[in-house]
Amino acid sequence: MEDTQIHTTIEQLVAEEHELWEREAAGNAADSDRRRLQDVKVSLDQCWDLLRQRRALREAGRNPEGADVRRAEVVERYEQ
């Protein structure tokens, strides 16, 4: 996956996240919306991590295609 594709995915996820937060703020969110919001947050973390991996590989003179999406359990343990 190219960086531009990852950025596009991030933009789509952010738009969905905003929509879900607006539903929550308006008191119109269902349990499924709250679960989806959690899934979106994890997916965003995975996308940002993938971009960081690709950048690090590129800076080290290696092929950025060697980067892989890490499991949710891994990216959710990172300190912010």
What is the strand and helix layout of this fold?
Elements: H1 3-26, H2 31-59, H3 72-75
How does this structure look, described?
This protein is an all-alpha fold. It has one domain (3-75). The protein is 71% helix and 0% strand. It is built from three helices and no strands. α1 (3-26) packs antiparallel against α2 (31-59). The mean pLDDT is 94.
Task: Describe this structure in a few short sentences.
The chain is mainly alpha-helical and 80 residues long. It is 71% helix and 0% strand.
String of helices and strands: HHH
End-to-end distance: 25 Å
List low-pLDDT spans.
none
Shape summary:
elongated
- Measured as a percent range, the helix fraction is over 70%
List keywords for this structure.
80 residues, elongated, 0% strand, mainly alpha
